[in-house]
Amino acid sequence: MATSTGEQWSPNDYVTHASFVPALASRVVSLLAPQPTDHILDIGAGDGVLSIAIASQVATVHCTDGSRHMVEYAATRVAEGKIKNVTTEVVDAGTEVKEKIPAGKYNKVFSNAAYHWIFGSLSSADARAKAFQDVYDILPPGGEFVVECGGHGNVGEILVALVSTVTSVWARKGVVKTYAEIKETLSPWYFATNAEIAGWLQAAGFKIELLEREYRPTTLNNGDIGMKGWIDTFGFPFWEGLNDEEKNAVISEAVELLRIADWLEHEGKWVAGYVRCRFKAIKE
């Protein structure tokens, strides 16, 4: 389990290198099926782009994230756009949902590209199951829980490259760490299987309306520097204990390894091996 990453996010890096995340959310938004009477809680809303887009179709959206920096960025977007039906709040979705969110206030809970981070911040299967139980408890009867997140195998090649290069850099410092130790202590992600997701939803009391897994090769932003930008934006927990020179060595070595699998020379772009898990579940 990685340590908390909440205040290490850079909104500017996210906008520059990860704008494809909300842009590729059409499938999960269609499952949400926004309606004019909906009051939606958006968990892990990041920079707020998707919350704001959904807001024009619904009554209210409450935009939450575990990163204060990202919530402040989203709040600025909301204020600049004079959007009256979007509110923002810092909420750690792994531990604070029942503490901060009033029960019954939102008829739909929505999340895109966040739950693999939430799962990664939690130390056990029981804790991950409780995160779903907390959502169930705040929804009214008939309420919907609609999510897309990284599924089992998501960006597997990037994870292997980062674990391998970080292990090598620590070895050059005279510190022997196993691949498993690096993954367990530094990786910020937990990519659950569909079976795990189904088990946690059913244990909470949800009726699963849809649960799917999709391999979705994803073109990264910014051409040749796309992979470096992706690792800079999302890989920061792996730098714990390393100085800037060592961090830069990890990034450059990981990028060179990943050219074997993810760089399309003839097209001048990086394509990462994304695997998406999506579900829609109902509180009966």
UniProtKB/TrEMBL annotation:
**Key word Oxidoreductase present:** no
Domain Methyltransferase: where?
Answer: 38-148
The Swiss-Prot or TrEMBL record annotates one GO molecular function as:
methyltransferase activity
Keywords in alphabetical order, please: Methyltransferase, Transferase
Q: Does the keyword Transferase apply?
A: yes
GO terms (BP aspect): methylation
InterPro entries, A to Z: Methyltranfer_dom, SAM-dependent_MTases_sf
Any coiled-coil ranges, and where? none
Q: Known PANTHER family for this protein?
A: TRANS-ACONITATE 2-METHYLTRANSFERASE (PTHR43861:SF1), TRANS-ACONITATE 2-METHYLTRANSFERASE-RELATED (PTHR43861)
Q: What is the recorded name of this protein? A: S-adenosyl-L-methionine-dependent methyltransferase
